Amino acid sequence: DRSPQQQGHHGRCEYRIDPDNVNAGLLQVLRYFVPEFRDVPDDAIEIKKLTGGVTNALYRLSSSRVQERRGEIPVVIRLYGHKTEDFIDRNREVLIQQAACDLGVGPRLYGVYANGCVYGFIPGRPCEPKDLADPIISQHIAKAIARWHRIDVKLPKEEGEGGHDRSSPVLWHSLHKFYRMVAKAAKEPNQPAKNKIADFKYSVEDLDKEVDAIKAVVTKLGSPILFCHNDLLAYNILIDDSANTVDFIDYEYASYNYRGYDIGNHFAEYAGFECDYSRYPDEAHQRRFIRTYLEAMAEPTGAGAGSSAGVTEGAVTQLYVEANLFALASSLCWGMWALVQSQSSSIDFDYYDYARLRIDHYFQNKERFMNLMSKL
Prior knowledge:
Layout: H1 4-7, H2 22-33, E1 46-50, E2 57-62, E3 75-79, H3 90-102, E4 109-113, E5 116-120, E6 125-126, H4 135-149, H5 170-186, H6 204-218, E7 225-228, E8 237-240, E9 245-248, E10 255-258, H7 259-268, H8 283-298, H9 313-342, H10 351-370
């Protein structure tokens, strides 16, 4: 491919990083989008692959010759996973990243190249699943979710798409899209030998029925539709111990959705990629988290210390029920997503087994969580 300097323009270029020569491509893209690195020699630039991503590959680039600036330098270059454009709207993702930057909840976005994007690095250590249960960290996360849920982002409305505004939660669009992709992949003659959808524990017909079943229940809850991150797994949450704050990264699934989904999905992620559901938070922990979230939502800025005076037990219970029912939807959604990924991703991760574990969680907890409706 030609260099991005030859074919690009500010904010976007058509250069494509070759997966077989990643470092050379990273340096080309870095120098195109970030002027501070243009005169820095290759051997003075440190390239570090970041861990935790199962959709894309992430690289942190820095140099002792370039002064650090929070949210700008070092730089993160994301290399999109193979065929992820089939289920991620990359144009919408760019709009959301820019909006997050403008609103002060995200890093600087430098630009987009053919198979990835470039943005500033937020200092902090990625959470581990065990961190999510920490009472102090979880309170910071609850407040940060409230800050996101108060954002108003104008997104383009596209035919057949969801999640563009408060009238259109993305959840059903995502579930139906992943189901269609699974059903299509099941008919492909060249499926991976070890990951055949026909051999999966649950049939395509089973999954279709459960999408309708969970929709029939959660749409009765009246969960508000807000701007949600939708992917608050541990590794997408950064802890800055020095500032005692948390930040969210990776906005590719962010969109308008039910508040209960964002929180329920986060609770499901306490289990980590190994799906150890003994770590799923108990009711007492969830209620503390939810109260903190509701108190932060009640603040004029959505980010203050909050007051418990206006948050009733009934409001806490309502969101507690929402979160657990939407956690079921989350497991169904990510289970089908993983099945799709098992057919095409080049990332070293057992998507097929992860799909089984997530959908196992759905069926094992379906009756118990649906019975929570009696609390309302």
